[in-house]
Amino acid sequence: MTDNRPGVPVSESARHPSDAAPDSAAVRAWLAGLQTQIADTLGAFDGTPFASDVWQRAPGEKLRGGGCTRILENGGFFERGGIGFSDVQGDALPPSATAARAQLAGRGFEAMGVSLVLHPRNPYCPTVHMNVRLLLATKAGEAPVFWFGGGMDLTPYYGFEADAQHFHRVCRDALAPSGDDRYPRFKRWCDEYFFLKHRNEARGVGGIFFDDYAEGGFDEAFAMVRRVGEGFLKAYLPIIETRRDMPYGEAEREFQAYRRGRYVEFNLVWDRGTHFGLQSGGRTESILMSMPPGATWRYDWQPQPGTPEARLYRDFLPVREWV
Fold it and tell me: pLDDT per residue over 151-177, tens digit each?
């Protein structure tokens, strides 16, 4: 969950957090409410309610705690959608969380968050991901070290400039009260993070991404994270409302399945959230709910020049400024 590449440093406030005590109960209550709000809104949009899978870690397991997975499969609009809330505790941070925090190795932890991925059936409607989370590194007799992480990013199969501009505009506005530097900083972090290095290719048109965030102390950092989480529906819902009835055929579905293969590659090979969950003994079904219901791979395939598929590679996947 930490990005320690050059140019994306661990924040000094994460290394030396504020003395203000983190209010984990307030974060937990907000996260649960956020999950409900998003699931209810998108279930109404789809015409199919999200089912609830409440789960609890069994005694003696590596992790303690539990959560609720809201899942929709084969809906009227969403081919698959998962909105997960979890609050788990463990006795030692996994390697993915201490790669840039050697001083925290061996500490216990509590990790709570909401993470979602939505896969519409219509190829003209983009896949979207959003995550907001709090992690506490704990040690008996010492104050917990806290940091927030999260963000959202958009993965279109057929690009529309208006959609990318709207999505980035909402991201920018959510971050603006925390400082004018936040959006360009977190946009660049997102562009660098959601990148398939083995393909030399972006996953989509980006958005914002941040980790190790505790700047200004707990209250200020939590306020920023709330604006991000509560901005998600403003960023995504207008896009799918606009595109939901666009006609498509088998060729568009085949290209969607091909690009979904890239989504799978990123989540399994590069995503530190996936690695954190699996390394810490997390619930596999919930961790992998982000996977699309179907994906394909073709050997050395390239889109034909001048096609809408080629335009995605030419105009949307290369990093650019949207707002």
Answer: 999 999 999 999 999 999 999 999 999
- DSSP assignment of 131-185, as one string? EEEEEEEEETTEEEEEEEEEEEEEE-SS--HHHHHHHHHHHHHHHGGG-TTHHHH
Query: Residue 220 phi/psi, 5° resolution?
Result: -70, -40
**Is this prediction's pTM over 0.85?**
yes
Average pLDDT over residues 88-97: 74
Domain 24-316 has CATH 3.10.520.10: no
Residue 119 labelled as part of a binding site: yes
Annotated ligand binding at 275? The verdict is no
Query: Which residue out of 16, 129, 166, 275 is catalytically annotated?
Result: 129
Using CA atoms, how far residue 175 sits from 25, 38, 185, in Å, is 24, 20, 10
Map out the domains of the chain as residue ranges.
24-316
* Residue 283 is labelled as binding a ligand: yes
Return the structure tokens found at 90.
């463990």
Q: Whose structure tokens read 């004018």?
A: 180
Separation of alpha carbons 292 and 308, rounded Å:
22
Q: 213 has which bridge partners?
A: 148
The annotation status of 10 as a binding-site residue, yes or no, is no
Token couple for 280 = 């810490």
Other beta carbons less than 10 A from residue 114's beta carbon? 26
74: left (phi over 0), alpha (psi -120 to 50) or beta: left
**Spatial distance between the Cα atoms of 1 and 98, rounded to a whole number of angstroms:** 9
Between CA 51 and CA 241 the distance in angstroms is 22
CA distance 144 to 178: 24
**Is residue 16 part of an annotated ligand binding site?**
no
Active-site residue, 16 included = no
